[in-house]
Write a structure and sequence with these properties.
This protein is of the alpha/beta class. The protein has helices at 7-19, 35-47, 75-84, 95-98, 110-113, 117-120, 124-139, 151-163, 193-214, 221-233; strands at 2-4, 24-29, 50-55, 89-91, 143-147, 169-173, 238-246, 261-269, 272-280.
Length: 281
């Protein structure tokens, strides 16, 4: 497994690989890798000749009061996981090389980036779209792998790929969960034991929402959200950032649930902000 730190070396490797006719599967990450990331690398390994994984904690996608500084950095463990998953290249650029002095360009997808996560985290998707486009230009991937856990991110990146004619195919992969249903996240490690026990309720509530809709018990999203919010509010120290039923494509709120929709939630438990979503129909 090759570790590449410089942007120019990454680009040179990518051009050479593509010129040789090989496909490149790319998994962008912020490190602190877990089974969710491993599932993306595994899929990329199955579908491509060469697998590149980037590890870059992107300052541009963190708000001023967010956890950029304390975001977990676990380089040695990450490399061991990637070796086990048979990644070919780990790309670990520095902040300085990604955003040298004078860096000014931003990519925005206005119709999708100010709602849900974007409303709670202004500027977040601008930071994501900008870094992902830069990484695409460096890695030249044939396919790029993203997790459905970050559903809105998938929508934003798909839109950007289509709008800007990026020659990469986005592959969205299912959310990997703990045995009790909690979506695996690098931020789960911030939870205390008690908070971790309570956190499973986020998934339980989404699951309940899906049941209530599929059994046609509640097809009005306002009524459904009220019911689910009451349960979430009982988690000690919790604060609901949002829980919404939205259209899978446009992410517009859906009132009457008569066709497939996404039920998405962001909940703070203590100091930890967790997100999850589920498809309902
Ligand atoms: P991150 O390192 O959190 O930026 O995540 C890198 C990629 O891994 C993103 O495409 C995430 O959606 C994906 N990912 C994170 N957690 C999971 C999970 N539990 N299951 C599947 N994919 C995930």
């Amino acid at each position: 497994m090759k570790i590449i730190e410089s942007v120019s070396a990454m680009q040179a490797f990518a051009y050479k690989t593509r010129r040789q006719g090989h496909t490149i599967g790319f998994v962008p990450t912020m490190g602190a890798l877990h089974e969710g990331h491993a599932s993306l690398v595994h899929r990329a390994r199955l579908e491509n000749d060469v697998v590149v994984v980037s590890i870059f904690v992107n300052p541009l996608q963190f708000g001023p009061k967010e956890d950029f500084r304390k975001y977990p950095r676990t380089a040695a463990r990450d490399l061991a996981l990637l070796k086990a998953e048979k990644a070919d290249v780990v790309f670990v650029p520095t902040v300085q090389s990604m955003y040298p002095a004078g860096f000014a360009t931003r990519i925005r997808v206005p119709s999708l980036d100010a709602i849900l996560e974007g409303a709670s985290r202004p500027g977040h998707f601008q930071g994501v779209a900008t870094v992902v486009l830069k990484l695409f230009n460096m890695v030249q991937p044939t396919r790029a792998y993203f997790g459905e856990k970050d559903y809105q991110q998938v929508r934003v990146i798909r839109r950007m790929i289509d709008d800007l004619n990026c020659s990469v195919r986005l592959v969205a992969c299912p959310t990997v969960r703990e045995p009790d249903g909690l979506a695996i996240s690098s931020r789960n490690r911030y939870l205390s034991k008690k908070e971790r026990e309570e956190a499973v309720k986020i998934h339980q509530v989404l699951f309940l929402g899906r049941e209530l809709v599929s059994e046609k018990i509640m097809l009005d999203s306002r009524q459904l959200i009220r019911r689910l919010s009451q349960i979430l509010a009982k988690i000690p120290g919790s604060k609901i950032d949002y829980i919404e039923v939205v259209d899978p494509e446009t992410l517009e709120p859906m009132q009457k649930i008569r066709r497939p929709a996404i039920l998405a939630a962001a909940v703070r438990i203590g100091k930890t902000r967790l997100i999850d979503n589920i498809i309902i129909s």
